[in-house]
Amino acid sequence: MPTKRLNGSEMLIEALRLEGIKVIFGYPGGAVLNVYDEIFKQNYFRHILTRHEQGAVHAADGYARASGEVGVAIITSGPGFTNAVTGIATAYTDSIPLVIISGQVPISQIGTDAFQEIDAVGISRPCTKHNFLVKNIQELPRILKEAFYIAKSGRPGPVLVDLPKDISATYGEFDYPQEVSLRTYKPTTKGNSRQIKKVVEALKIAKKPLFYIGGGAIISNASNIIQQLIEKTQIPALETLMARGIIPDNHPCLLGMVGMHGTYAANMAMYECDLLISLGARFDDRVTGKVSEFAKYAKIVHIDIDPSSIGKIIDVNFPIVGDLKNVCKDILHFIEESGGYDKNIIKEWRDLLTKYKTTHPLKYNDSSEILKPQWVISKIGEILKDKALVVTDVGQHQMWAAQFYPFNFPRQFITSGGLGTMGFGLPAGMGAKLAKENKIVINITGDGSILMNIQELMTCVEQKIPVINVILNNNYLGMVRQWQSFFYENRFSHTDLSLQPDFVKLTEAFGGKGYRIETKEEFEEALKDAIHSNIPCMLDVVIDRMEHVLPMVPGGAPLNKMILE
Amino acid sequence: MEKRRIISVTVINEHGVLSRISGLFAGRGYNIESLTVAPIPETDLSRITIVTNGDAKILEQIIKQLHKLIPVLTVTENEDFLEKEMALIKIPIEEDIASIEVLCRAYSGHVANANEKYIIVAITDKPYRITSFLKAIKRFNPKEIIRSGVVALERY
Q1: Residue of A268, A270, A422, A479 marked catalytic
Q2: What residues have CB less than 8 Å from A13, skipping those under 6 apart?
Q3: Please, where are the H alpha helices in A113-158?
Q4: B-contacting residues in A 92-121 (Cβ below 8 Å)
Q5: What residues in chain B have their Cβ under 8 A from chain A's Cβ atoms?
Q6: CB-based contact, A136 to chain B, within 8 Å
C-alpha cells in the first residue's frame, strides 16, 4: 500500500477503517477534539455518544462479548480517562479484547500537571494487557496495528493507546502494517502433543472424569468442539459463570453452574471427581471454595492459553498451554486414533451425578403472594429462549439469571464475572444489541446496580437501542444483605435501599417506557409489551425482599459444604 | 520454603518498561531485594537483574507474569550465575586508613577517592561478601554506605 500523508487523527480513523470497525463508543473532550473533528467528517463507522465514559467502555465491552470482535472506545484525558478505568478493569479481568483511545495533553505539557492531565499509562498499567503513550507521529500506525493485534490474540484483553493532543494534529507518513510480528510476544496456540496424549490416556482410565468449562471456551469459540468431545465420551460437564451457554441447557451431560452459587450436582461432581479437565477456566476463588479441599481426589488437567494461569491456584498434573479449540481438536483426534472411548467405564459415575441432579435440583418456593426472582428469570427464559441475549449487572439477580435462564448458545450470557462491576449491564446491553441487532437484549439488573449507570438510558433512547431492563427490585443491596443475613447476624449495615426513585417516571423522563410490576400476570403482559414496543424499557419488578441465592458455599468453605436451604 | 533467587530479564529498552516490571512486583506483592538495570551494548535491549525471595510457587508466578509483559524478551532464573555487587563507603579521614586499606584488600576493594574530610572505598564482590565487609568496616564509623544491587551473568 502506498503511504499517505495524514495527521494523527486521520491516521486513527483510517486505522479503524482498515480494522473493519463498524461501531465505536465514546465521549469527546478537549484532548480528543482533533479526533472528534475527523469522526465528524467520516462515514465509515458509527459513533455512539454515551453519557459517561464508563458507559462507553462497558458498551464496547458488551459489543466485543456479543460479537467476538474487538470493541473500541474513545475518551478524553484526565477525568474522561479515570471514568473509563472501571470499564477497562472489567474487560481486563474477563479477558475481553478492547482498544481504548484516550486523549492526552500535548507532549510539551506532559508532567506539568496541566489541565485535565493524568498519567493514564501509569494508572492503566495493572488493568490493561498492554498500553502505549504515543510520543511520535511516526509510531502511531505501528502502535495502532499492534494495539489491535495484542488485544485480540493470545489471552485477549484491553489495550490503551494514550494519544497526546499535538500528535493528533501532527502530519506523518501513514503506512499501516499488514502484519504484526513482535519478537517479545508470541502466544502459544498449539498444545504439546505428547502432553495431550498423556491426558487422553488418563481420560480413558478415569472412573470419574469431569469437564470444567470456563470463559476461555467462549473466547476461543470452542463450543462446537467441546460439544463433540462430550458427545463422543458422555463425560459430565459443568460450567463456570463465564461459560454459561457453551453446553445447551437441557444437555444430559451438563450439571449446571459450579461454584459459590453452583448446583448441588456440579459442586459435588467437582468434589468427588478423579480426573478434572479444565477447559479454559482459571480456578477462581468463587469456583474453588477452600483450595486445599478442592477436587482433592482428582488428577488435574489445566488447558489455558495463558501460562500464568496454570499452577497459580492449584497444582496441576497435566499443564497444557494452547488455544482451547486446537487442544480439544487434538484430544478428540487422539481419542479416535487410540481406538475410541469406552463409555461404560463411567456409567456408575454418570448414574451418581444423575441422581444428584434429580435429588437436588435448583429450586425455590414459589408464592402466590409475592413474585419470586427465580420465577421471573424462568418466565423470561420461557418466553424468549434463544431469541434473547441476557446481560446482567452484579449481585443476586446475576446469580439467579445464571442459574435459571435456559442458556443455549455461547455469547448468549454477558456478565461481569471477574471484577463483578455493578453498573455493567445497561451499557454492555447497548453494545450487545448493536452487535446482534436481530436478538432481543434483556438486562437483568437490581435496584442497586441500575442506578450506577442509569444515564445510559439517554443513549439508548437517542440511538434507538431497545434494551429491556428488568429490575429484580428487593429494596436491598441484596447480595451484601444476604451475607449480612448469613454471617453478620442480620445487621443490615447500609444495605437497605428502600428509598428509591420512581423507576417508571425516571424511565419516562429519559424517553423510555416504564412498568411497575407486582404480579405474574403484570409481568408477562409487561414483558410482551416491552418486546413489541421496540424502545428502551424498564420493568421494575417487586420481588420477595428476603429471598436468598441458594445453594451457597460460604467463602473459604469446601465445595461440598453448601447451604441448601 | 522461602529462598533467595536471582532473575535476569532482558527487555526492549523502551519508555516505561521498568515501571511495568516494578509495578508487577508491587501490585502482586512480590519482594524485590535488589534491582539493577542498564542497556545491553549495541542492542535495543536492557538487562534487568532482580534479586527476590519467595517459595517455588511464587517464583514460578513471578517468572510467568514477567513473561506475560509485552516488552519482555527473556526471563532467566535458576541458572549458574556469576554474581557481583559493588559498594561505596564514605569514611572520615581521621580513621585508621592503614587498617581500612588492609580490610579493603581482603575484599578486593580499594580507596577510590580521598579529600580533606573523607575517603571513599569501593569494593566489588559477591553480595554476601559485601555484607561481611560492611560489618567489618563499621568500626571505622562509615558516614555513608551505598550498595549497587546485584548484576549476574550465566556462567555458560
Answers
A1: A479
A2: A35, A38, A39, A42, A44
A3: 120-124, 140-152
A4: 121
A5: 11-12, 15-16, 19-20, 23, 27, 57, 60-61, 64-65, 67-68, 70-73
A6: no
Residue A301 CB partners (closer than 8 Å, separation 6+)? A199, A202, A275, A276, A277, A278, A316, A317, A318, A320
Query: What string of pLDDT tens digits covers the 565 residues of chain A?
Result: 567 899 999 999 999 999 999 999 999 999 999 999 999 999 999 999 999 999 999 999 999 999 999 999 999 999 999 999 999 999 999 999 999 999 999 999 999 999 999 999 999 999 999 999 999 999 999 999 999 999 999 999 999 999 999 999 999 999 999 999 999 999 999 999 999 999 999 999 999 999 999 999 999 999 999 999 999 999 999 999 999 999 999 999 999 999 999 999 999 999 999 999 999 999 999 999 999 999 999 999 999 999 999 999 999 999 999 999 999 999 999 999 999 999 999 999 999 999 999 999 999 999 999 999 999 999 999 999 999 999 999 999 999 999 999 999 999 999 999 999 999 999 999 999 999 999 999 999 999 999 999 999 999 999 999 999 999 999 999 999 999 999 999 999 999 999 999 999 999 999 999 999 999 999 999 999 999 999 999 999 999 999 999 999 998 899 999 999 8
Q: How far apart are CA A31 and CA A134, in angstroms?
A: 14
What is the value of ipTM here, to two decimals?
0.91
The question of whether A53 is a catalytic residue gets the answer yes
Nearest CA in chain A to B71: A184
Bridge partners (DSSP) of residue B154 are B81
Mutate to test the interface with B, among A181, A185, A313 (most CBs of B within 10 A): A185
Q: What is the Cα A107 distance to its own chain's centre?
A: 35
